[in-house]
Amino acid sequence: MKKILFSTIISFSILFASCEKELDQAPISDASTARFYDSPDDFVQAVNATYASLRAYPDRQLNLSETRSDNLYATSDGGVRDWEGVNSFHKTIASNPYIIEAWSENFNGVLKANTVLDQIEKNGAVIRDESLKTRLSAEARFLRAFFYFDLVRWFGALPIIERPLLAEEATSVGRSPVEEVYQFIISDLQFAQENLPEQYASVDKGRATKFAAKGLLALVHMTRSGPTYGVKGPGLGLNEWSNALTLLNEIIGSGKYSMLTNTGSATTAYSDIFSYTNEGNAEVVFDIQYITGVNPVLGATFPWVLVPDEWFQSLGKTTQGGLTIRPVSTNLLNSYEANDIRRNFSIQTGFTFNGKTETRSFFKKYVDISKVPTSSRLDWPINFIVMRYTDILMLKAECILNGAPGTQAEVDAILNQVRSRARLAPLSNVTLAQLMEERRKEFAGEGSRWHDLVRSGLVETKIPAWIETEDVLNQMQNFIKEYVIYPIPQSQLDVRQGLYTQNDGY
């Protein structure tokens, strides 16, 4: 699907041009959409364009989850950078471009999904293949749920938009409670898991499958089960660990995925997950796919987001846009055991450029230095794995440790399978804290750490303790529970006075 996702955007994006910035802007008109949706292929293209709204999702996870967490001590060594307020818990970040992007791009994706669903209802008679019509509806609903789940983890309460709205209508829709947002998400994902195929022919490989929907729904149940912290955030304090476990076991029991494992003395299995020549491997449950070498440029940008430009220059490559270094925290570096092969693959420690020696570390996990694009830094030829099989297994262990049916032996076996690939000794009687520490290293640089801390209830203890020891430059603010979520973008508050109320703490 690498070609399908983006190849139709060049022409189809014209239809969405009027709604690419803010939630308050009008969608495409009934007249223009009616003219476009004349054949089944038109609907397929529209769904493909909705997938394209995932393009910046990886960058967002690195900028808002990885940077927010204790994995990075992202203070600047030159000028004021957008990531500093995110990492340092500044309360005046409602106009931060990363936060604005998270709101606007996700709602742009929601608008595209809604437009597809609306046109299937109005003009779907041209799709005579009922199975295709159902599948396209399921894909659109999966994507709408995906965008909303991303939003609810960042912002909490949200406006629920389930059809295309005119500008005046959109500016009258207030935020619904988190509970109602989740019901909307769950309804979409239940439809998706019931109506998406288990797999696709090679030409469509990469589209959301039944198992991608099950995995996302499982994570929704787990996130809802996290603590509330007394704020209107993603945790509702529910006990839905068993609901999640059932879904995770269905993915595991399908036999369609497996962990990549080392062979003999080789230690390449972990790096093989992210290899540019091994995309779509047995670990991949759902990924975001890119196409390179086209105009406009539609490749990936996430490989360099956490990588300083001077490192590329030190290797004779062009600058990419990472600017100055966003250092890996000392806390994370010290957490790796001596023989853990994941550290050297994921993290670069030091380099020399123009006579200057940089001793701090940074994530290089997605960089294959032989694949650095020469024509555009926006055109990296690598997919982003949103959900991989190792994650499914470790989420299962988390459910069991939170009271879902299962045994300690199952938890230990899962963790030790992960540790074995990292060339580490096995553990016994694994606790939730140990599991989360293993997740921290397994998924370092993948954008999951902040979500893990919030969901597990560890954020209130881990982050304050980390700030106390890590903040040697005294640049970080005290962490308060309200910072579990981000502020509503100021631009949205300004659309219509009183429509939204700012999240507490900002």
UniProtKB/TrEMBL annotation:
Transmembrane segments: none annotated. Keywords: Cell outer membrane, Membrane, Signal. Residues 45-220 form the SusD-like N-terminal domain. It comes from the Bacteria. One of its GO terms (cellular component) is cell outer membrane. Its main location: membrane. It is found in: Cell outer membrane. Residues 355-506 form the RagB/SusD domain. This is Putative outer membrane starch-binding protein. It comes from Arcticibacter pallidicorallinus.
